[in-house]
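Milestone M4 deliverable, item 7.
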Amino acid sequence: MGGIVAGIAGESAATGEAVVTDTLRMLLTVLCGFFWTLTYVLAIRTGVRDRTYAVPIVALAMNICWEFQFVFVRSTAHTAAATGTAQAEILIGAVWFVVDCGLLYTVLRFGPREFPYLTHGRFIAAFIAVLALAYAGLDIAARQYDDGKAVLTSYGMNVAMSGLFLAMLAARRSSRGQSLGIAAAKLVGTAAACAGWYLDPSTHPGPWLPFCSIACLLLDLAYLLALSAVIRAERGPAARTRQAPLPGTAVTAPPEGTDVT
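Output delivered:
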């Protein structure tokens, strides 16, 4: 979710071109931070309103664990020499971690009713197990493939999260606990982070980040379109009653005295 912002940072020489690039990175970092924060706030609001969680459980677990590692564990290794953009990312990550506590509340408060075949205690135990697996998996992947950094794992995590939003929509078969505002804010926030990396791909070369960027954007766009279609379908019955009949279909006059306005 929000972890993808780490991919924006890069190290540049203090040249005129680098200053412009760093300024654009900073602006995109702020844009990404704003829209992902908006995503979280809307998700909390929607979850409380619909009495469910608005972010998939596995996605939230990965997000909380990534932000904890990035803000409280791994940030200490480069804080002293961090650029302004990197410091902004750490601050944004801290804000996200705090806001995530609100999302965590919706999962713990309303999550058990989404799994009626589990007792409350088993649901909590399962969620703790998911958190443990997410933390260990992200930590191992960061050490194995990114020298302990958080960039490669953040992009891979966001691909999974984007897919999980689509899976949640399919599982619920309705727009309950979801909104177009959440989907749109998530798409814009991810696009800003991806654009930040494309300003200077040399900071993290290779095919992984381009693949993840394209995959995230496609999945987020697919989720926005799919959710929009579901919402239209949910509002459809009332609209269809006002549609003209098909050619060749007999029109039955309403009973006398019926209000057809």
